């Protein structure tokens, strides 16, 4: 039994309803338990595009990080189809602005009491 047989179909091949070959390029990144993640990613990118993107990265660790990022981006996009990750960025930007205002107020208060 080869690796593909031992680990079963990867999520990509399961989704595409095809046999998972031993040299399946996405098997290590989308094992069968990552079916939902792959579904989300495939709504944004074609399988060939995902493979092309992976081929632009040299080492395996960076490939894994790239896939992790694609999964996160796709998950956020499925939860917020209109704005995607921009909605989170805007929310965080507002939080930063509020916190900066708070820090400024604390500094001014501290300065005031130092002068007493
Ligand atoms: Zn596969």
From TrEMBL:
Protein family membership: Belongs to the LOB domain-containing protein family.
Stored InterPro entries: LOB
GO CC terms of this entry: nucleus
Signal peptide per UniProt: none
UniProt name for this protein: LOB domain-containing protein
Gene Ontology BP terms: regulation of DNA-templated transcription
Pfam families, per database record: LOB (PF03195)
Domain LOB: start-end pairs: 8-110
Species of provenance: Solanum lycopersicum
PANTHER family: LOB DOMAIN-CONTAINING PROTEIN 27-LIKE, LOB DOMAIN-CONTAINING PROTEIN 4-RELATED
GO molecular function: DNA-binding transcription activator activity
